[in-house]
Amino acid sequence: xxxxxxxxxxxxRVDDRPVWDVIxxxxxxxxxxLAHRLKVFPLLAAGPRPLADICxxxxxxxxxxxxxxxxxxxxxxxxxxxxxxxxxxxAEEYLLEKxxxxxxxxWDLMIDNYQVCSFSSLEKAILADAPQTYGGGNIxxxxxxxxxxxxxxxxxxxxxxxxxxxxWPGILDLSRHKMMLDIGGSSGAHSIGAAxxxxxxxxxxxxxxxxxxxxxxxxxxxxxxxxxxxxESSIWCDHWPAADLHFFSNIYHDWPLxxxxxxxxxxxxxxxxxxxxxxxxxxxxDEKKGPFASAAFSMMMMGWTEGKxxxxxxxxxxxxxxxxxxxxxxxxxGYYSMxxxxxx
Length: 344
Hints:
Helix 14 (about 255-270) links the parallel strand 7 and strand 8 (about 275-280).
């Protein structure tokens, strides 16, 4: 019988690249983190170099050097011409510390907490439905208790935010809004970006006292002390200062939907008529078939928080139930989108 079964065997209907891609992702993408840790990108900022020169500078042998350089080239961070490796615009924009859109601090945060994305850690997060960062403790309580952890985390949040922060304020007509409350604003990247793009807008960053101290340093770097301030407060327990624009970036995905509902209702209560809410997140599509970036971000949230990514439809329904009107979804920068509504 087995012989009869195999006599009719056919080639697979589809090729096996998707299953290989899982393996290649496990080994391939960490090569970029290694290149970052080894300072490949600042090394090449001075100009193209051949493999031998890179090996000498990094003090590693050709085989491992070629492995990480080829991955970086294949993924678009380096180019290779006439035997010389050079930075691409992606690397220049995001992997050189002098760039305002420098992403490296988030990569540092991922490296420092790499155990969170291990198979065993993610398995524990899935089976227990609980975050595994900092030994499974509360991420925000850990930051309050350990200042160095907080500084590293806030640098990482700034690193992942600045590129989008410089872009989204140009998408919506915000000309009639005067004060933006950046709720859980961390480093203040989005307040800084909004203030740079919208000269009539003032911003107030609402966060824990220790975070506000870090944010003040970033505000000073951009010379925006006159228009961007901090307000030490709990987003959950304390009263929110007056503002006609409420901005949330990467806040809702930290929490279950009921906590997001609480924040949305609190926003509605605090805004005056004509006030606007903006939720800035990587969104699932309405049927939750993807996209992959949002699905992967939800897996990251499994390891780090008690939240997940949401769809634009989920946010829209929540905002409508609470009373917001003129609810719209806009593509922002990269993988990000914005859901916005007005209080009647």
